[in-house]
Design goal:
Blueprint lengths: L1 H7 L4 H12 L2 H13 L3 H29 L3 H8 L4 H30 L9 H6 L1 H19 L3 H28 L5 H9 L3 H6 L3 H15 L6 H7 L7 H33 L14 H12 L2 H37 L3 H27 L6 E2 L2 E2 H37 L1
Antiparallel strand pairs: 1-2
Helix pairs in contact: 2-9, 2-13, 2-14, 2-16, 3-4, 3-12, 3-14, 4-5, 4-10, 4-12, 4-13, 4-14, 4-18, 5-6, 6-8, 6-16, 6-17, 6-18, 8-16, 8-17, 9-14, 9-16, 10-14, 12-18, 13-16, 14-15, 15-16, 16-17
The protein binds phenylalanine.
Length: 421
């Protein structure tokens, strides 16, 4: 254990914060948050989401980082250390990031495609791109290869360096896109109203409260990388120099800011284009997983020539944000494989990513079908990506997060934990 720690430990507290923020900020903020908001009726969802982050997310994150730091080991050993019967939660904490890696890589592939295609223009390519299986597989491969490249260097060298530059850059470019979007003119105020002024009646009428709350909670877990072994594993690489409370607060604030900015860029634009260009909300991807990919390219198109450059940098940032997130997902599984099967790091990560890649193929095909009004590879009436996303976010992650809190609150003991933290 000592050796793993030395090899992968974070050099500094700020290094840990950047790496953890790199894990948290990703497609959850940019892709999932606006999409789930549009499904949850707009501002009501945003409000519920913020409440979930404040009252559930912060505590859960603190607990998970603490469990990892305390045990300095993979999730199974960490939970077993707290109580001998809790090993199964550790196992679930490893299965979840594996499942997420599979579908995350498909979406990561989309962002790579949108980056390299920025100069040709991405407006309106969603249907044709998502439908061309070979392209989807190719870009998924590139995305996984990028993650592998960084991971092979170990946590410290790769992630720490990348995140320090990436995070502030992403923030700045997001603010720029938001300002542009807010200046689009007609429709913007309706978009802002939809996004920021809760309409409680709409949710009550649809009798959707339970579903909406669960979705907001799942989104909070997903976006903050909670309810699985990710924060726990990063926590296991920290030492006493790291201030857990301060780090947790900073990660949660930054992650939420990026998510809110993403919505602020997208919704005013959706209402602007439906008002002025005669497209339907559905064509812009509202209420579905295509929202980011259908709406943002239109904003860039509106920026003229400069838009191509902005698009390139924006999507490149999204790719990097997604890579730093997928790295943390793979890291959980890899660390476990290394410690359990005594494999060398490179072989372990190779095996993990090869299996994830194989499984991502049907998921990519299924998602493409969904974007083309098809039902190829659908289960329970939804595409595989949506299915896996729903299972992890709304079932497995809340359960794991619950156990993380119980472990700290009751098994380790709140007082003991508070003293140590
Ligand atoms: N939080 C990441 C995102 O928002 C996804 C993720 C989930 C990463 C769980 C690690 C663990 O994109």
């Amino acid at each position: 254990m000592e050796e793993t720690k030395k090899k992968n430990g974070f050099a500094s507290g700020i290094g840990f914060i950047f790496a953890a923020a790199g894990s948290a900020v990703g497609l959850g903020n940019l892709w999932a948050f606006p999409y789930k908001t549009s499904q949850g009726g707009g501002a009501v969802f945003v409000l519920l989401y913020i409440l979930c982050v404040l009252f559930i997310g912060v505590v859960t994150m603190l607990c998970e980082i603490y469990i990892g730091k305390r045990a300095q080991a993979n999730p199974i050993s960490a939970y077993k250390k707290a109580h001998k019967n809790l090993g199964f939660i550790g196992l679930v904490s490893i299965i979840i990031p594996f499942i997420i890696t599979v579908y995350y890589s498909v979406l990561g592939g989309y962002t790579v495609k949108y980056t390299v295609n920025s100069f040709a223009g991405n407006a309106g390519i969603l249907a044709s791109f998502s439908n061309s299986k070979w392209q989807v597989i190719l870009f998924t491969t590139i995305f996984i290869a990028l993650a592998l490249l960084i991971v092979m260097g170990g946590v410290k060298a790769g992630i720490e360096k990348a995140s320090k530059i990436l995070m502030p850059a992403l923030f700045i470019i997001m603010v720029g896109v938001v300002i542009f979007s807010l200046c689009l003119g007609e429709g913007v105020s309706d978009g802002l109203k939809y996004y920021l002024k809760p309409d409680f009646k709409a949710v009550v009428h649809d009798d959707n409260w339970g579903k909406t709350i669960l979705a907001a909670m799942g989104q909070a877990f997903f976006s903050l990388s909670l309810g699985m072994g990710a924060m726990l594993t990063y926590g296991s690489y920290t030492d006493n120099k790291v201030n857990l409370v301060k780090s947790t607060a900073m990660i949660c604030i930054f992650d939420t800011l990026i998510a809110l900015l993403s919505g602020l860029a997208i919704f005013p634009a959706v209402f602007h284009y439906t008002a002025t260009e005669g497209v339907s909300q559905a064509e812009l991807g509202m209420q579905g997983p295509g929202l980011l990919f259908a709406t943002l390219p239109r904003i860039f198109e509106n920026m003229g020539i400069a838009g191509k450059i902005v698009s390139f940098f924006f999507f490149a940032m999204v790719v990097i944000a997604a890579v730093t997130s997928v790295i943390s997902l793979m890291e959980v599984v890899t660390q476990f494989v290394i410690q359990k099967f005594k494999l060398n790091r490179k072989i372990a990560i190779g095996i993990v990513s090869a299996i994830a890649f194989a499984l991502s193929i049907p998921v990519g095909i299924s998602l493409g079908s969904a974007f083309n009004n098809g039902t190829t590879l659908f289960i329970f009436g939804v595409d595989l990506l949506t299915l896996l996303d729903t299972i992890t976010n709304t079932v497995l992650m809340p359960v794991t997060a619950f156990f993380a809190c119980v472990t700290v609150g009751y098994i380790i003991g709140g007082k003991n934990a508070a003293n140590e933290i």
